[in-house]
Amino acid sequence: MKGLPALLLLAASPAAADPAPAVPEPAALVQQLKDGADADLPEELRHDARGAPVPAWDQLVRGDRAAHLRRILGGSDAEAKARFGSWSPEVRRAFGLFLDKFDNEGWLGVVGPLLQDPWQDTVVFKPVEGPYGGLAKVLSDKPGQYTENSLGNGAAAYLTAWNHKNWTRGWMENDVPNACLHVGLTDAGAAEAHFEAYNPLFTNGAAKADVVWAPLFGSLNARLMAQHKRWEDPPNNARSRTSANFYHLMKGRVPLSF
């Protein structure tokens, strides 16, 4: 396992003094401070919310999605739209990304009612039976896209869900390097899905130099695991795991409705 990283791994610029410094507008000053605070982040995690679109309701409701949205958000079309509209722009963007991702992955039909309002990186919902079975069957039937977080798939796969103590089963995408889905079923009967900016289980299609393997340990993308631990663990998670960053990581890779 040579090269495997350990698994447990503002200043604003001074104004010119000649002849008289211009006083920045409050919004500009806030942005200067933010840019300074984020200077240590990788470029792909420095996206400002103003540079990422927010979906309009009409963009999300297309094809047969109206029925899905009523089931997920609850109530009539008007009530579902009102609930969506009550969220912050960041959360509306996140919900749109999850909706597009689930749809593109082919399992929007097993996503039931939300059990809480979304976060920028997470949705929690009640899974329902779809035309091809429940959530566990759908994900288990896609071994070329998802790796179950089980010891049967090696310690690396198992440990990626170690901090989710209430999960009874979990799966992570294995064929995308960034903004991947990590999905779990909880002991309360709920399902939780969240985005990972860097995917430690990206092994299907990854560069061979990035992947380490050992008996019983299984396969792990060492490069992305190192980035995941550095940038997505506290204290950096609040700055890195934003819907604006996830939007740009998904753009061009996933068909988005906005």
Give descriptors for this structure.
258 residues, 6-stranded antiparallel β-sheet, 10 helices, single chain, two-stranded antiparallel sheet, 17% strand, alpha+beta, 33% helix, 8 strands, globular
Topology:
Layout: H1 26-37, H2 57-60, H3 65-73, H4 77-85, H5 89-105, E1 111-114, E2 122-127, H6 135-140, E3 146-148, H7 155-159, E4 167-173, E5 178-186, E6 191-198, E7 211-214, E8 218-221, H8 222-232, H9 237-240, H10 243-250
Antiparallel strand pairs: 1-2, 2-6, 3-4, 4-5, 5-6, 7-8
Question: What does the model show?
Answer:
With 258 residues, the protein is α+β, with helices and mostly antiparallel strands. It has one domain (52-250). The chain has ten helices and eight strands. The protein has a six-stranded antiparallel β-sheet. The protein has a two-stranded antiparallel sheet with strand order 7-8. α3 packs across α4 and α5 runs parallel beside α10 (243-250).
Low-confidence region ranges: 1-36
Quote the distance from N terminus to C terminus.
42 Å
The geometry reads as globular
Average pLDDT reading: 88
The fraction of residues in strands falls at 15-25%
- Which oligomeric form is depicted? single chain
Q: How many helices?
A: 10
Structural class: alpha+beta
As a percent range, the share of helical residues equals: 25-40%
Order of helices and strands: HHHHHEEHEHEEEEEHHH
Instruction: Provide the spatial order of strands within the biggest beta sheet.
Output: 1-2-6-5-4-3
State the gist of this model.
The chain has 258 residues and is α+β, with helices and mostly antiparallel strands.
